[in-house]
Design brief:
65% helix, 7 helices
């Protein structure tokens, strides 16, 4: 749908009526589709592709306002899970380091506060590789 008004016509421009609300909805749907896609990639042991997909989406979301913090936290949490899996497979210390950094950031961004993930999930066997890390122990202590 193209609308033209006097001011728009003077600029030789147009507007589609596609506003910020529509952009936000499109972004939310895009994030959900990428999360689904990365879960499928992970199920097929394509961790590197899943990491690339989530990292690209996180770069875009990081440029948005505070309203997107829960989405940012979700992406960081999912990336942390992927890095933990990669660290377990490859026995790679840098993957383990990335996992703890992303998990700490997800918690700071409010992953548990927004009830997107429970503390039981954060303390579950999914992150058993991080149990001896002091940052993980500090993060989960008393929760």
């Amino acid at each position: 749908v193209v609308r033209q008004g006097d001011e728009i016509e003077k600029m030789k421009a147009y507007t589609s009526g596609f506003g910020s609300f529509h952009h936000d909805n499109a972004r939310k749907i895009w994030v959900e589709l990428v999360l689904l896609y990365t879960h499928l990639l992970k199920a097929n042991d394509q961790y590197e592709q899943a990491l690339a997909q989530l990292s690209d989406v996180l770069k875009v979301i990081n440029t948005l306002d505070k309203e997107w913090l829960p989405t940012q936290a979700t992406l960081e949490y999912e990336l942390a899970l992927l890095y933990v899996d990669l660290a377990a497979i490859n026995n790679n210390a840098s993957d383990k380091e990335q996992a703890i950094l992303l998990l700490v950031s997800a918690v700071k961004s409010g992953i548990a506060d927004h009830n997107l993930v429970s503390w039981q999930d954060i303390k579950s066997n999914k992150f058993s590789l991080l149990k001896n890390d002091l940052r993980y122990q500090k993060l989960t202590r008393g929760r």
